[in-house]
Amino acid sequence: DAKTTQPPSMDCAEGRAANLPCNHSTISGNEYVYWYRQIHSQGPQYIIHGLKNNETNEMASLIITEDRKSSTLIRPHATLRDTAVYYCIVGLSGGGADGLTFGKGTHLIIQP
Amino acid sequence: DTAVSQTPKYLVTQMGNDKSIKCEQNLGHDTMYWYKQDSKKFLKIMFSYNNKELIINETVPNRFSPKSPDKAHLNLHINSLELGDSAVYFCASSQGTGKAFFGQGTRLTVV
Q1: B106 in contact with chain A, both atoms CB, cutoff 8 A
Q2: Residue A31: C-alpha distances to residues A89, A95, B64, B97 (Å)
Q3: Do the chains contact at A85 and B97, CB–CB below 8 Å?
Q4: A98 touches chain B (CB under 8 A)
């Protein structure tokens, strides 16, 4: 079972920042937070991951609360191509051998 | 260059047949995976494999078997196909971490 909780769907206006929340209240000290997205009919795409500090890359920013029980993925200046299912996943960085446990994710719809 | 490539992209076959899906990665990763996405869009890990260890999700029927001829390839063999095997199968690879790269998927339809 996935160890994260996400809203099933969200809307965001094109050009605005899309803020996707994730609850992971049972996260353990050595587990990372990973974000992936799946655009319709494509394979999942890695976005970003973090342990406790906020992270930013060319795709998004990841804000993790101080207690690490929740996080927010921020996709700035969303475009129509950002419409996808976004998955928040908790896992061990060095424990990738077990694979990723995907939940139901958030279906983000970017509105023109 | 495609980092993780799967063939075929579409596969339609009859019940009872045996089929294979091929996967190749050119990232130099040492761990490869197979995932299954069913009609309800749930993505589930089936296998994880590196040159030392095969980890099998206990819910996967033994009709499914991964075969790795070398580090860059992990093929999925399915025997005696059933209607319930219809799904999209994704191959992925990583350097043993949670940062994985996925292929574009193989849509298997069993009729």
Answers
A1: no
A2: 10, 9, 30, 11
A3: no
A4: yes
Rounded to 5°, angle at Cα B29 from A106 and A73: 25
Taking CB atoms and an 8 Å cutoff, what residues of chain A touch B57?
99
Confidence of residue B39 (pLDDT cuts 50, 70, 90): confident
How many A×B Cβ pairs under 8 Å? Answer: 68
Determine the distance in angstroms separating the CA of A47 from the nearest CA of chain B, rounded to an integer. Answer: 9
Which residues, in sequence order, are CB contacts of A18 under 8 Å at separation 6+? A10, A12, A73, A74, A75, A78, A82, A108, A110
- Mode of pairing for the β-strands spanning A9-13 and A106-111: parallel
Q: Which amino acid is at B40?
A: K
Q: Is the pLDDT of residue B46 over 70?
A: yes
Radius of gyration of the CA atoms of chain B, in A: 13
Phi and psi torsions of B85, nearest 5°: -80, -10
B43 touches chain A (CB under 8 A): yes
Q: How far apart are CA A91 and CA A103, in angstroms?
A: 12
Whether B44 has its CB under 8 Å from any CB of chain A: the answer is yes
pLDDT one-digit tens code per residue, A87-105: 999 987 655 567 888 999 9
Q: Residue B6, class by beta-carbon neighbours within 10 Å (0-12 exposed, 13-18 middle, 19+ buried)?
A: buried
B80: Cα within 13 Å, side-chain hemisphere: 3
The percent of residues above 70 in pLDDT, for chain A, comes to 94
Rounded to the nearest angstrom, the gap between the alpha carbon of residue A9 and the centroid of all alpha carbons in its chain is 13
